[in-house]
Amino acid sequence: MKRTFAGLAGLVLFCIASGVRAEEPAQPIVPTTKIELFNGKDLTGWVSHLKDDTDAATVWSVKDGVIACTGKPNGYLSTEKSYANYQVTVEWRFTRAGNTGVLVHINPPDKVWPMCIECQGMHDHQGDFWIWSGAKVNEPLERKNGVIMKVPSAEKPVGEWNTYQVVCRADTVTIIVNGQKMNQVTGANITFGQIGIQSEGAAIEVRRVTLEPLSP
Predict the structure, then answer these.
(1) pLDDT, tens digit, 9 for 90 and up, residues 126-142
(2) d(Cα 49, Cα 65) in Å, to the nearest integer?
(3) Residues 6 or more apart whose Cβ sits within 8 Å of residue 206
């Protein structure tokens, strides 16, 4: 079941969206200017997908300009809109170490986990990729469906803010953590879709999700 968000009187209100989602992703937006995907007040523009139809309000909340996620149960927030050819910057931190991630090129149907490319956010593994539900890349997969980073972690200690960037250019996806290139996959068979933040065990806070056009 999909759960959408809207703001009212400074509070986050959670509304269940009815209807069945089309089996084809919406045509993507290619950004030409900077877009703040998180408005700092509420989760307008985002949709929650959680296992067992868990109430989104028990997992996701907004306070003092920050998205807080409890990490349980597994699931994700996704943008309502679909995007292609962009850089997305997520500023986040662990309040309790564990697992999370940034999902790009999310394609329907909605499930845990959907067809997408996961840019790993697990503690000390920020830079791995996980390739889900029919997505494909040129690089050989390890540990069943992973492309593991070959450089040391650039993640900051638990409690400190990290700048996590994902560059999606045509069929190539690149992960940059705190200014350091960590990993890249090429030849992806999906090149656009929604963008998501995972709930996967870690308590996290997110203070910024910014979409920017690619440089020429």
Answers:
(1) 999 999 999 999 999 99
(2) 22
(3) 38, 66, 67, 69, 90, 91, 92, 197
Tokens of 73: 């149960």
Q: Which CATH class is domain 3-18+25-212?
A: mainly beta
Checking if the pLDDT of 18 tops 80, the result is: no
pTM above 0.85, yes or no: yes
Q: Return mean pLDDT, the chain.
A: 90
Q: Is the dihedral of CA 38, 43, 44, 45 positive or negative?
A: positive
Categorise residue 121: left if φ over 0, alpha if ψ from -120 to 50, beta otherwise: alpha
Nearest alpha carbon to residue 45 among 71, 77, 23, 74: 77
Distance CA 149, CA 135 (A): 19
Mind listing the pLDDT tens digit for each residue in 98-137? Answer: 999 999 999 999 999 999 999 999 999 999 999 999 999 9
Rounded Cα distance, 72 and 90, in Å: 20
Domain ranges for the chain, please list them.
3-18+25-212
Query: Which two three-digit tokens encode residue 102?
Result: 């940034």
With a pLDDT cut of 90, the percent of the chain lying above it is 84
Residue in the block written with tokens 């997992």? 59
Nearest to 106 by CA among 44, 28, 212: 28
